[in-house]
Amino acid sequence: MNRTTQTKRTTIYDLAELAGTSASAVSAVLNGNWKKRRISAKLADKITKLAEEQGYALNMQASVLRRERSKIIGMIVPKYDNRYFGSIVEQFETLARERGLFPIITCTRRDPALEVEAARAMLSYQVDCLIATGATDPDRIVDLCAAAGVRTINLDLPGARAPSVISDNYGGALELTRRVLANCEKEYGEKTPLLFVGGRGTDHNTMERVRGFRDAHAEAGVTVDETLMLTCGYAPEKAESAMQQLAERLSPLPRGMFVNSTISLEGVMRWIRRSGHYADRVPQLGCFDWDPFVAMLGDHIEMVRQDVPKMLEAVFGIIDSGATDITVVQVPPIVEKIG
């Protein structure tokens, strides 16, 4: 039986010996810090070529040193497990590749520390641009990138220090609330305030949706009940817990509700089925999010579909134009009946 001997992996010490220099100099070149170390361009080019010839693990980064641009574009995204963010990722990859760019994406789970860690890691890969999607602190990410000379564009949630592309959260929520209120009046013959479930009360999108929710109530001559404003976060478990706590204080619950995402809707539906609270009457629902599987819930739901294709077109329009103005582009969402 023949044995295959595993080839020894090239190290920076091997490269240093081949280049006739120190390991620290090799490391500085491969990490892109050679100018700060006052290493000559000739030596940097020699080390870069040796790294590529030897198949060194960081040859992708090293080759960037010979180009003005890496043609790598990064994106951080808070979640993978809903259709909205999944669609953003898929279309981001498509549009990036159409432009000859290599996309890299990572999920930060709405964790500010992970967002910063991910941004730093992408900077180490010499990204030309970073798209901060749904970031909890987009301005901090912009500051990190700006220090490295890398531009940032905010998507889904806006920031104050870079261009942003978001949905028209106010307009979408206004129309969605109008429809649910009208459905409740038609179905039950009365005007009553809706329950608001999900989202973080401190983020821009939720605040704008709450504003649209309130204005639609005012138009209909219905007073918002503050005890029914459950901005409890996006996680299904939080929505489920908030519903349970409300039911312990108030019964029966409202016959109509505005749910702030399909993630929150998962928790709402779980609680409804577990508790049996609406066993005798199906609530009228509105969800600021979209998923075709929600149609299986019945024809008593309205949904807002965020226009992901137009949002990504706007993002790449900013990239292609080289615009640096700190503007907020609001893309109108689509409100549609399910079922």
Automatic annotation (TrEMBL):
<feature type="domain" description="HTH lacI-type">
    <location>
        <begin position="10"/>
        <end position="67"/>
    </location>
</feature>
<dbReference type="Pfam" id="PF00356">
    <property type="entry name" value="LacI"/>
</dbReference>
<keyword id="KW-0804">Transcription</keyword>
<keyword id="KW-0805">Transcription regulation</keyword>
<keyword id="KW-0678">Repressor</keyword>
<dbReference type="InterPro" id="IPR028082">
    <property type="entry name" value="Peripla_BP_I"/>
</dbReference>
<keyword id="KW-0238">DNA-binding</keyword>
<dbReference type="InterPro" id="IPR010982">
    <property type="entry name" value="Lambda_DNA-bd_dom_sf"/>
</dbReference>
<dbReference type="InterPro" id="IPR000843">
    <property type="entry name" value="HTH_LacI"/>
</dbReference>
<protein>
    <submittedName>
        <fullName>LacI family transcriptional regulator</fullName>
    </submittedName>
</protein>
<dbReference type="GO" id="GO:0003700">
    <property type="term" value="F:DNA-binding transcription factor activity"/>
</dbReference>
<dbReference type="Pfam" id="PF13407">
    <property type="entry name" value="Peripla_BP_4"/>
</dbReference>
<dbReference type="GO" id="GO:0000976">
    <property type="term" value="F:transcription cis-regulatory region binding"/>
</dbReference>
<dbReference type="InterPro" id="IPR025997">
    <property type="entry name" value="SBP_2_dom"/>
</dbReference>
